[in-house]
Amino acid sequence: MKKSLLSKQVIQNFFEGKTTQMQNILIQEWLENPAHRELYFQWLDEWELENPQFTPDVEQGYQRSLYTVQDGGGIPMSPRANAGTLRGRLFAFKWAAAASVALLVGAYLLSDFWLYKQYETGYGEIRTVVLPDSSRVTLNANSVLSIPRFGFGNGAREVRLKGEAEFAVKHTVDHSKFIVRTPDKLEVKVLGTEFIVYSRERGSKVVLSQGSVQLRSLNEVNARPMLMKPGDVATMSMQGRLTLKHSVSLSAHQAWKQRLFMFENTPVSEIAYQISEHFGVNVVVADSTLARRTIGGTFNASDPANVLKVLSDVLNARVTHTPPGGHGAETFVLDSNRL
Q1: Ranges for the Protein FecR C-terminal domain (predicted)?
Q2: CATH for 131
Q3: Residue 84 — pLDDT band, cuts 50, 70, 90?
């Protein structure tokens, strides 16, 4: 029943305030699915093209939807007599639809949902995205890129990253800046260049292959920008402290794009951490001496079991595998191969 009612025409009727109360409830349930929300915005874009007299005011509409949620009142599903022009009525109808989403996900989540489009990768997945300005972003596994739904490229181009990604930024004729922001308040600012940004729980990292980059830690008051040149690698600790290294070999930092792990005198404990964050599995190094050993080499990153099998052969160690079950994640234990 829901599938037959929630056709494209029904959603467009919703934009125009022509749906019934029952249809509004079904639409709210339908929007709980992320794939449906993306379809919702696709149909909304098409509807706006067919109604060119409507010009969205994102901030005003967003604040209006927040007021609706905080006030506890109902969602306005029909035009008001004092709406005036057709443009005003269309504005009211569209933001009524946005308010429906607000009631589903809450005022805080609405901000990201309505204002930002998200590109995500699962564990073990790599994905390339072309942005509206023709910049290219390649996402590593377990990463999220958020870009503004409205106004991207009008002035500064700002995106958010959680995880790891390589950016190939397109230089624009108006020299507009491209800014990457991370959850731990690292700001990466460029005009046109190629670089990698890593941002996870243990800190952030920027690897510059071409062009120039300006970094700033927003954790510090009046922080001075740090300039990077090709071959530089900058890291930011969990305390917000930036460190810059020059003339670094970048191959190990870029290997993930070819679905490879490349290690250069890397401790086994660090290798275990990288496998865990890439595949979403637990990797435990049970022997402290084994954890401190370092190795180098290139490993295929297609499957955690295969990586650890090769690693155990190199280290003359053994691997114990526990499949996922109940609330426990898949676990691999690497231990010395004592006789």
Answers
A1: 261-318
A2: 2.60.120.1440
A3: very low
More confident residue, 69 or 164: 164
Q: Please state the pTM of the whole predicted model.
A: 0.66
The CA radius of gyration of the chain, in Å to the nearest whole number, is 25
Q: Are 292 and 314 in contact (CB under 8 A)?
A: no
When divided into structural domains, the chain yields a total of: 3
In terms of domains, do 140 and 244 share one?
A: yes
Res. 224 pLDDT band, cuts 50 70 90? confident
Helix-helix angle 21-30:86-115, to 10 degrees: 30
Bridge partners, residue 163, by sequence: 199
CA angle at 43 for the pair 41 and 44, rounded to the nearest 5°: 60
- List 238's β-bridge partners, or say none: none
CA distance 118 to 145: 6
The confidence band for 95, taking pLDDT boundaries of 50, 70 and 90, is: low
Residues 6+ apart with CB under 8 A from 125: 141
Decide: 243 and 224 in contact? Cβ < 8 Å. Answer: no
84 and 199 in a common domain: no
The distance from CA 114 to its chain's CA centroid, rounded to whole angstroms, is: 15
Residue 121 token pair: 């990768």
Q: Rounded CA gap, 299 and 307, in Å?
A: 6
Average pLDDT, the chain: 80
Transcribe 172-221 into DSSP letters.
Answer: PTT---EEEE-TT-EEEEESS-EEEEEEETTEEEEEEEES-EEEEETTST
